[in-house]
Amino acid sequence: MKFNRMHFQRLSFYFSVILFAAVASDGIAQSSQEKGLEIAKERKLRDRGWGDSVAELTMILRNSQGQETERAMRLHGLEVLDGGDKSLTIFDEPKDVNGTAFLNFSHAKEPDEQWIYLPALKRVKRIASRNKSGPFMGSEFAYEDMTAFEVEKYTYNYLGEDTVQNRKMFIVEQTPIDEFSGYTRQKVWIDQERYIPYKIEYFDKKDSLLKTLELNEYTLYLDKYWRALRTEMFNEQNGKSTEIITHEIEFKTGLEDSDFDKNSLKRAR
Amino acid sequence: MRRFWLNTVLHRPWLTIFFSILFVLLCATGAQKLAFNGDYKVYFEEDNPQRIAFEEMQAIFSKNENANILISPKQGSIFNPKTLKLIADFTEEAWQTPLSSRVDSVTNFQHTWAEDDDMIVEQLILDANAIDEPLVQRVQEVALSEPNLVNRLVDEQGRVALVSITVNLPDGDKSKETAQIVDSIRQLTDKYQSLYPDHEFHHTGIVFMNAAFESAAKDDAATLVPLMFVVILVVLGVLLRSLIGTLVTLLVVVFSIISTMGIGGWIGFDLTTATVNVPTLVMTLAVADCVHVIASLLYELRRGKSKIEAIETSMLLNAKPIFITSATTAIGFLTLNFSNVPALADLGTMTAIGVMIAFVLSISFLPAILRLLPMKATVKQEQSTDQFVKLGEWVIRQHKRILPFTIIVVVAAVGSSFLNTINDTPVEYFDETAEFKQAADYQEQVLSGMTTIDFALFTEQESGINDPTNLKHIHEFSQWLKARPEVDSVSTISDVFLRLNKNMHADQPEYYRLPENQQLAAQFLLLYEMSLPFNLDLNNQLNIDKSGTRIFVTMQTLGSKEITAFEKDAYQWVADNAPQLRLTAGSQNLMFAHIGEANMNSLLRGTVLALVLISGILIFALRSWKMGCISLIPNLLPAAIGFGIWGIYSGEINMGLSVVLSMALGIIVDDTVHFLSKYQYARQQHKSAENAVRYAFRSVGKALWVTTVVLTLGFAVLTLSSFALNSDMGLLTGIIIVVALAVDFLFLPAFLLVFDKQKLSEESSHEI
Q1: Membrane topology for this entry (chain B) (predicted)?
Q2: Domains in chain A: how many in total?
Q3: Of B117, B119, B532, the CB nearest to A134
Q4: Minimal Cα distance from B541: which residue of A?
Q5: What counts of helices (H) and strands (E) characterise chain A?
Q6: For residues B455-468, average pLDDT
Q7: Residues of the domain holding A90
Q8: Which residues are within 8 A (CB) of B12 and not within 5 positions of it... i.e. 6 or more apart?
Q9: Average pLDDT over residues B177-186
Q10: A205 and B96: CB-CB below 8 Å?
Q11: Is B520 on the interface with A (CB under 8 A)?
Q12: How confident is the model at residue B380 (pLDDT cuts 50, 70, 90)?
């Protein structure tokens, strides 16, 4: 058998394939964390500049028997560009918690600061708990599911692509840095065009699927900011679910820092 | 028809065998569908009211099926840095248990206190690696004063701590999941056992009870069935003295069992602690059929007949009695379908199928294979006087004394049968050798009983539990529960409110009372809920619109009556003191407490039906209304006497025993059929009652003795089960079968000698 040109070509082809594969796989392994982080940064970046917002929400809680109950609240948010966002939640219903207001300073690295105003006691109380994973008003949302997304709260891993609601998605796995988080990891489906999440899966401490969040009815505000007006959290383990419906949302309402301090809590009605 | 059958069986034995084996193989393919099901719910119908109440409560609040681990130092109290670290680490790792949704222990208890004007919510031991003496002090103080902890997660003396893992078991078959959970926890325990050799670990809770149910079923299958084979081999060897006879009987038995279990698989039955007895029962009943056929065959051979003649005679003699006894037995077992306990109904159906298969095989496969195999018996003269003839003579002489004596025995037995009370306590099903029982006893001794009842109070209005009146009633109800002597611990939302109110008022002791108004209560709760971590929330105690709350009660291990009485008192308390609240109660213990009575009532109806059907068959078979009616007495007396003996021996009727009545009826009827049919035959030959009794003893005395021995041994094997539902059932049925023989040998002839004096010619006009 002669070692002819064709053989050589074929051999060099194989060689280059192997070489390329090695390089490529190495490259992917290195960049999957980076790519995840990149997507997360882009997600945060695209949402910059919304300033402040006021939203009116209804929360519908359902149990596995199909019974349901409603909560109503207003949500004031303030974007803080060089730190964590601030939010103020005012509860309207049920009646017996009407006027209760909840203030949160979201921090990227240290725990969030939280206060609550109890009108019946006429006092502001600091929530000195590191627990952020408990249910928000008995719903399937944990408090940490509702706070503003901050890049520094997680480490990332890019998992691949998928299609949700006929739209192309990145799947990014994010692992909470806070040891008091209720989750080992979250799998987030992020729209490749808009960089907003359409679906999030939450995994509990034993790494089983605990909850799935679906974000629907995305609406564009100020030509730039996408907000999901209907989100629903399904608990995959106990069959309960909670839906949050945003009835109204307004941006740039002129809220400022002084509307988000302990004193403002008492005034919030 | 009969000709065709005999011709096929005797002259085309290969064909018969071929079809028999084909049938067995077809059935057998279903056996792979049989799965072990250790779920305690196999004892409860889907629409069992207690099951519905319990499952509804699980759906409205959260599932609360637990696996518990008791941790105790071999010496001293748990309040030392080492043990607390052990508990804290164990608690943390227990979150890895498959399907776990919650882990509670003294170390992750969410302690609340006031600091300046703030309320702090923090788990008692935050860092397991930094436990010092002051922290130990604090943990001890909180643990022994907190109503949600003491007697629940730690005992009053601080000798033992309990880690409770709540698991989210799927509906339906959960053996796989149960096994996973149990394996995972055992591994965890083993790990900590080797790290802390000076500590003891015990496992209790529903998950381990389920696992114990399953292992009881598996143990029974693994030990009792082989043991039964040994017993059968020995009995057959002794009774038949024929190797071939023993071997073919074994074949029939094995075929019957395989087809029965296979058909069970096709139908979709599970192997449960109840149906695992089917092989033993089918074996027992199949052996009785074969013994009759082979004994007659050997008898004919000894009289010098050719084998084919002997088989034919045996078939002609036995086909009808075997059919009747099989049919009555099957009817008895089928009436178990009246049971409120699905597992027992399945047991009845499968055994009935098995009995009929055994019948078919013993008149087809059995004669066919006997036709092909060599069988010899030395020709010899029949012994003229055997033991049973002597017994018959004695009964005839003494019958005037036997009768009043029997009546005394019956009255005494019926009287003492009232000593029986219905009682189902799942823990007590297991004997002392079961690890689960030992752990349960240990828990009872050091911490709390194994009985739990969940009470749900519904206000029927949104946020209703925050209403001061409702809250007051919830609190008073909780206090009433705590004051009951049988109650070990009560976990209630009202205690949380007391504590929160105090915390919100700078921990001033005088504020350890319920919040004054609804707004306060609601807002405290909101704040508290926001401060709780993942899965240690209040969703297990509050429903979604906070209109209802669930209270957990742990009690001493109680019998059915005490539990249902306790439940009734609770309903009464709420009706009297808080009529605006709706109370429901639910728990596994309540389900078991109610099942015994419901089951007994429905089975009594089933037994009456069985009695009517069986008597109908007897009237038809004996072709006499009179004999059919007389047969009622020997059919009913054994059960009455048997339950009388049980009243003296034990007095506790669990649901396994409630099926004995109809089951035993189907079996003991055989004795009556054989005895009465022979007696009647002799009377029709115009013999006197005395001579007819003699004839009956001579012709069937030994056969009855043999089948009774076989059946008694069969049920005796069941008594070796470590699972009380099975062992008690075996024991009582065994007792009844022995009593039945005594009744047929002593009372029945005495009765006939006294009351059956008329000439037979009058009787014949009543024939049907």
Answers
A1: Multi-pass membrane protein
A2: 1
A3: B532
A4: A138
A5: 3, 13
A6: 90
A7: 46-267
A8: none
A9: 90
A10: yes
A11: yes
A12: low
Residues near A27 by beta carbon (within 8 Å), at least 6 away in sequence: none
* Assigned domain for A144 exists: yes
Residues B582 and B480: beta-carbon distance below 8 Å: no
**Domain spanning B1-33+242-377: CATH 1.20.1640.10:** yes
Distance between CA B762 and CA A127 in Å, rounded? Answer: 98
Parts of chain B belonging to CATH 1.20.1640.10: 1-33+242-377, 383-418+593-768
How deeply is B108 buried, as exposed, middle or buried, from its count of CB atoms within 10 A (0-12, 13-18, 19+)?
buried
Cβ(B491)–Cβ(A77) below 8 Å = no
At residue A93, the pLDDT reads 85
Dist. CA B362–CA B352, nearest whole Å:
15
Identify whether A23 is part of a domain: no
**Is the residue at A112 inside a domain?**
yes
- Out of A114, A128, A138, the one facing B120 most closely (by C-beta) is A128
The answer to whether the bond into A94 is cis (omega within 30° of 0) is yes
Q: Six-digit token pair at B258?
A: 């395989």
What confidence tens digit (pLDDT) does each residue in A161-170 have? 888 888 899 9
CATH architecture of B383-418+593-768: Up-down Bundle (1.20)
Q: Which 3 state secondary structure label does DSSP give B319?
A: helix
Compute chain A's Rg from CA coordinates: 23
**Cβ atoms A157, A187 nearer than 8 A:** no
Tell me the pLDDT tens digit for each residue of B604-658. 788 888 888 888 888 888 788 888 888 888 888 888 899 899 989 888 888 778 7
Average of pLDDT values for A25-48? Answer: 77
Q: Out of B100, B520, B531, whose CB is closest to A129?
A: B531
CATH number of domain containing A105: 2.50.20.10
Across residues A203-229, what is the average pLDDT? Answer: 90
Q: B102, B108, B531, B537: which to substitute to probe chain A, counting the most A Cβ within 10 Å? A: B531
Query: Min CA distance, A117 vs chain B (Å)?
Result: 9
For A128, which residue in chain B has the nearest alpha carbon? B120
Amino acid identity of B550? R
